[in-house]
Design brief:
Chain A: InterPro entries: Rab4/Rab5_effector, Rbsn_Rab-bd, Rbsn_Rab-bd_sf, Znf_FYVE, Znf_FYVE-rel, Znf_FYVE_PHD, Znf_RING/FYVE/PHD. The complex is a heterodimer of chains A (about 700) and B (about 500). By secondary structure, chain A is mostly helical. Chain A contains 25 helices and 5 strands. Classes of the chains: A mainly alpha (about 700), B alpha/beta (about 500). At the A-B interface, β1, α1, α6, α8 and α13 of A face α1, α3, β2, β3 and α5 of B.
Chain lengths: ~700, ~500
């Protein structure tokens, strides 16, 4: 809709700014550098073992001292110098002040400043430690002696006299050095966090490509390689989670507590990390097991063959359909109606011209006020042309066009109305169901109004979002397994009974999705021919409850049950099967899946969940291969499948987090559903544990 | 010419140019609004901007590990704040962007304050307006005129806003204005002045047809804003009030805490983007579809998640589901409140009469209908006053004008003085004497045919018969028929020649 747009105009003032700043800064930088160089000279020799006279000579050589006679008063406090109030020289700039106004620079301080400047040139020496350690010891050995002696003979063993101005400048400089050297914890953690994120951005797409390809039964990548990568990516996610959590809790136990802004920053970092993980991790599809993979490969082969056959069929199909429509069109046209199935009859008709058409329509149509108006205007045009008023003709012709468009539209609407009536008759039975559905919708709507869901991006409490928070599994590992089996199968049937509901809900939107004239007998084929969204919705038009495909989309378990035993019967290509596997890559949906899970048997990865407390026994040791439910799944069409334990645990955690979230927002109905899920998951987990042990 | 995108690009560029690392965005009151219209928080978080601060906030901590991106209007106060900030920098490095032209002297005083050399960038990025929709912006000025003249502050802000708009879209336009309005002329001159002064900035690639800036005064069509509208965005604006994409729902009876204030932004709300210009009736059915869609994703109580596969699918879809449920509850609440107000205020009936007043010429029927509605207790005093205002505008010079009677009715209805005064005010503001064009009676053949067509189609929807006068103006403009004696060009005639077609 919008054409590409380049960045708007900009104007930089940077060079101007720098010019002005340089003028101001130069002075300051030169001053500082001068002081530092002098300071270095003053501390370059061993002060303790040098005579005071010699020191003084050196000091005077560094900077010329101001003449005593030139300064009768202390320039800072204004007191008169005398025998008692003696003059003191600043060793850094040579100026004079009284003792009160004099400042002292300790050697460690001086060294810190000078070595920092040196370090900035040669970075390999450790910046903060060298001055302190060396000069700390020096100070300890000397200070006690020198403090006495300095008072006596004014020999400055470990400090250098200077004026307040020089000292100020140096202090400022020190502050800058400190800031440069000090890296707060949050920055260190944050840098690590960003590295992890970059890694994910690199690896995740690669993995997804692999997994998608493997799940489609292709043999481009090796399964082992992919599972290694998966473990690697997952580890990075856990690291991200751990790091961001650490950032979140930085300094929380400090006294005084950190500034609210610091906490806000930490929360935001954590929040964005959570968003990142949520967005990326949930898109991480799982891999097929080795056996599944073999199965998939086989299936793909078959499918390729089937597809070829189907393609041929589709071509035939569409030809047939085309024929039919043509004949249909012809018959309708014979009745003098406008055919509107394609929705674009207007240009066609206009190309043929409307006049002959209006003539053939006969008396009844002529009474249409629009047509009358059209006639009037055409005669106006003729008159205007005769009068040679071209601009008049222009406007009139425009009117005429508008009228024609309007007329075309009316005709189209009539045609649509007609065909709609036909369709309505077909829909009559379905409407009944729809009404039921609407009532339900009404009820749901009430619930949603009550349910309060956060819609604003601004006011989230980030501490609440912990999708990966782990809790030790407190569920006792008893054998509840069979209860689950029974329960699920009974509810299963109720779900299957409900199938007409969603399909009828779709009805109103989809009435026009396919040509109505084509009977239902075409649907299976047309569905096969198209693998797009239309196809996935179309089957609902067909009300045949026995259709395996329709059932398949409505509830995954049903799909499984139809898929398992009836693979051989179901010769047609089922797009949903493919879709499910490609999107979810669901290893559970395959009832034949045996257990050797590439993730679970990796003993060499003990750090897989570094942040988690051990969850009721080590899943990595016990999970592989010996799954007792393998038998189950063979005997019953909808038996329980083995589940990757790790994933199960992860999901338990996820659901816990969602429950928490839902509770916080007061969505009680959701909490209930979620709790139910949680219980179920836990039971499954317990059951599996029970089985493997 | 997408203004939302234009501003968004500026903001993205600022953030990109500051490089990696944690960042704080330092803004003033206005730029905060400007940025919030084009970026959501989660979107900007992904770009490592973790904190948002006001330059005038005193309670900011020293955080030397953050980079500061300053996006400020070039006002005197902001420059002063910035000078203080640079003297004692709280962040490690500063990237400074002004939303408009800043004077050389201000740059100098800023440079002199930057003794610690923390400033890394000083630029002008012309995002100096609130981008509401891709084709609509606002300056959020309430009341820009005193009488018929500009308030000086408002004129200067409007000029800045318009020139920033032109710069952000890289357009150097011809300017036309509405001759009947002194204010339009003043603004046109001011904009021209800036373009002349900053001619270097306005050096853009010439296009075959030069862009055009047409400045209109609302007083030319006082009717449109008096009518109740029936499209989604317009209704929200009219009935609930929308400010920088935020709707205050706190007065809605029984509102939950989470929905007190909601954000309606076409940028990241697909449903809103698709429905904002649709009729209220259509929205109703669309919301129903949305719910049904949502229903399919929502775990149902009866159809609990049975298999692990179900559960897995649910968990994987959960964030999406959550986002969707947020959208659903938001729109259900908003539309619900709209429909409640519509029935409470009897707006369907009111709107029908409003449309009759605006589009038809049957005085006696109009008068009768207005009188009838004034008796209706459900009609609010605000709507009652608007009806009388519409009547007054349309039948201002009608021979049997009975405005005094209606005014009496208003008084009897108990409509407050504040509203009653508006009737005479609106005549003074947009009455026949002021208008440059005729709002009510079509003259040429085209318009008559149009009205004829309208008569045919009018039956379809009585609530949307009226077409704003702006529509016609733009139509004429596009066809090159806009009269130069009503909307003259500003500037020398040589430039004008470039535009004249054929």
């Amino acid at each position: 809709m919008w054409e590409p747009q380049e960045l708007g105009a900009v104007r930089s003032h940077l060079s101007d700014f720098k010019k002005h700043r340089a003028a101001r800064i130069d002075h300051y930088v030169v001053e500082v550098n001068k002081l530092i160089i002098r300071l270095e000279k003053l501390t370059a020799f061993d002060r303790t073992n040098t005579e005071s006279a010699k020191i003084r000579a050196i000091e005077k050589s560094v900077v010329p001292w101001v003449n005593d006679q030139d300064v009768p008063f202390c320039p800072d406090c204004g007191n008169k110098f005398s025998i008692r109030n003696r003059r003191h020289h600043c060793r850094l700039c040579g100026s004079i002040m009284c003792k009160k106004c004099m400042e002292l620079i300790s050697l460690p301080f001086a060294n810190k400043l000078t070595s920092a400047s040196k370090d900035s040139l040669s970075t390999h020496t450790s910046p903060s430690q060298s001055p302190n350690s060396v000069h700390g010891s020096r100070r300890g050995s000397i200070s006690s002696v020198s403090s006495v002696s300095s008072v006596l003979d004014e020999k400055d063993d470990d400090r250098i006299r200077c004026c307040t101005h020089c000292k100020d400048t140096l202090l400022k400089r020190e502050q800058q050095i400190d800031e440069k050297e000090h890296t707060p914890d949050i920055v260190k953690l944050y840098e690590k966090l960003r590295l992890c994120m970059e890694k994910v951005d690199q690896k995740a797409p690669e993995y997804i490509r692999m997994a998608a390809s493997l799940n489609a039964g292709e043999t481009t990548y090796s399964l082992e390689h992919a599972s290694d990568l998966r473990v690697e990516v997952q580890k990075v996610y856990e690291l991200i989670d751990a790091l961001s959590k650490k950032i979140l809790t930085l300094g929380l136990n400090q006294d005084p507590p950190p500034h609210p802004n610091t906490l806000r920053l930490q929360r935001m970092v954590r929040y964005s990390a959570t968003l990142f993980v949520q967005e990326k991790l949930l898109g991480l599809m799982s891999l097929p097991t080795r056996e599944q993979f073999e199965e998939l490969k086989k299936k793909r082969k078959q499918e390729m063959e089937r597809k070829k056959i189907l393609e041929r069929q589709v071509v035939l199909e569409s030809q047939q359909r085309f024929e039919e429509r043509r004949s249909d069109l012809a018959s309708r046209a014979a009745n003098g109606e406008v055919v509107s199935l394609r929705g674009g009859p207007a240009p066609l008709r206009k190309a043929e011209g409307w006049l002959p058409l209006s003539g053939s329509l006969g008396q009844s149509e002529d009474s249409d006020p629009l047509l009358q108006q059209i006639h009037n205007i055409t005669s106006f045009i003729r008159q205007a042309k005769a009068a040679g008023r071209t601009d008049e003709v222009c406007t009139l012709q425009e009117n005429l066009r508008q009228l024609q468009d309007e007329y075309d539209q009316q005709q189209t609407e009539k045609a649509i109305e007609l065909s709609r009536r036909q369709a309505e008759e077909e829909d009559l039975q379905r409407e009944q169901l729809q009404r039921l559905c609407e009532r339900e919708w009404e009820r749901e709507r009430e619930q949603f109004r009550a349910a309060s869901l956060h819609t604003r991006t601004r006011s989230l409490d980030f501490r609440e979002i912990r999708p990966f928070q782990l809790e030790p599994g407190r569920e006792p590992r008893t054998h509840l397994a069979y209860a689950l089996d029974l329960g699920s199968s009974s509810v299963q049937s109720s779900a299957a009974a409900e199938t007409p509901n969603p399909s009828s809900a779709l009805e109103p939107a989809r009435v026009w999705s396919g040509p109505p004239a084509l009977g239902q007998e075409f649907f299976p084929q047309s569905m096969i021919s198209q693998q797009n969204e239309l196809a996935s919705l179309n089957p609902f038009d067909e009300e045949d409850p026995s259709s395996p495909t329709a059932e398949g989309t409505i509830s995954p378990p049903a799909a499984e049950c139809s898929f398992g035993p009836s693979v051989s019967i179901l010769k047609e290509y089922n797009p949903f099967e493919e879709e499910e596997e490609a999107v979810a890559g669901n290893p559970f949906s395959n009832p034949d899946s045996p257990a050797p899970n590439p993730f679970n048997d990796e003993d060499e990865h003990p750090h897989q969940r570094p942040s988690s407390p051990p969850v009721s026994g080590n899943p990595f040791e016990e999970a592989p291969c010996t799954n007792p439910f393998e038998m189950d799944s063979d005997s019953g069409p909808e038996g329980e499948e083995p589940i990757e334990e790790e994933l199960l645990l992860q999901q338990i955690d996820n659901i816990k987090a969602y429950i928490f979230d839902a509770k916080q927002c007061g969505r009680l109905d959701e909490v209930e559903v979620l709790t139910e899920n949680l219980r179920e998951l836990k039971r499954t987990l317990a059951k599996q544990k029970g089985g493997t042990e | 010419m997408n203004v939302v995108f234009a501003v968004k690009q500026y903001v993205s560029k600022m953030i990109e140019d500051s490089g990696p690392g944690m960042k704080v965005l330092l803004m003033d009151k206005e730029t905060t609004g400007i940025v919030s219209m084009v970026y959501t928080q989660s979107e900007i978080l992904q770009k490592e901007v973790y904190l948002f601060e006001r330059i005038d906030s005193q309670n900011r901590e020293i955080m030397k590990h953050l980079k500061a991106i300053c996006f400020l209007r070039p006002t005197k106060e902001n420059v002063d704040y910035l000078i203080q900030e640079l003297r004692r920098p709280k962040y490690s490095i500063y990237f400074i962007y002004f939303s408009n032209v800043i004077s050389k002297s201000d740059v100098k005083s800023l440079a002199e304050a930057d003794e610690q050399e923390v400033v890394a960038e000083v630029q002008e990025f012309y995002g100096d307006y609130i981008a509401v929709n891709p084709h609509l912006f606002s300056l959020n000025i309430l009341g820009c005129c005193q009488g018929r003249n500009w308030g000086p502050a408002q004129l200067s802000r409007t000029t800045q806003g318009l020139t920033a708009l032109l710069l952000s879209l890289k357009k150097c336009p011809m300017i036309r204005y509405q001759l009947s309005s002194e204010a339009a002329k003043r603004l046109a001159e001011c904009v021209k002045q800036v373009i002349t002064k900053e001619y270097e900035l306005f050096e853009f690639r010439r296009t075959e047809v030069p862009p055009l800036l047409l400045i209109l005064d609302r007083c030319d069509d006082a009717i449109t804003p008096l009518l109740n509208q029936w499209t989604y965005q317009a209704m929200v604006h009219e009935l609930l009030g929308i400010n920088n994409n935020r709707i205050d729902l706190s007065r809605v009876p029984g509102i939950s805490k989470d929905l007190r204030e909601v954000v309606l932004s076409a940028e990241n709300d697909e449903f809103y983007a698709n429905n904002m210009y649709l009729n209220f009736a259509e929205i109703g059915s669309n919301i129903k579809n949305l719910m049904e869609d949502f229903q399919k994703k929502k775990p149902k109580e009866q159809q609990k998640l049975e298999s692990i596969a179900d559960m897995k699918a649910f968990v994987e879809n959960y964030p999406q589901f959550k986002k969707m449920s947020g959208t659903v509850s938001k729109h259900v609440t908003v539309v619900g409140e709209l429909s409640r107000l519509v029935s409470e205020r009897n707006l369907l009936e009111v709107s029908e009469v409003e449309q009759e007043l605006a589009c038809q010429n049957d005085h006696s029927s109009a008068l009768q209908n207005v009188k009838r509605l004034l008796q209706n207790p459900k009609v609010t005093e605000f709507d009652a006053a608007r009806l009388v205002m519409l009547y007054a505008l349309h039948y201002e010079r009608h021979s049997s004008n009975s405005l005094p009677g209606l005014m009496m009715d208003l008084r009897n209805k108990g409509v407050s003085e504040k509203y009653r005064k508006l009737v005479s005010a609106v005549i003074e503001y947009g009455g026949k004497r002021v208008r440059g064009s005729d709002l009510f009676s079509p003259k040429d053949a085209v318009a008559i045919t149009k009205q004829f067509l309208k008569g045919l189609k009018g039956v379809e929807n009585v609530y949307t018969q009226h077409q704003p006068f702006l529509h016609e103006t733009l139509d004429h403009l596009i066809k090159g028929k806009l009269k130069e004696n009503v909307y003259p060009y500003l500037g020398p005639s040589t430039l004008r020649d470039r535009l004249t077609p054929r």
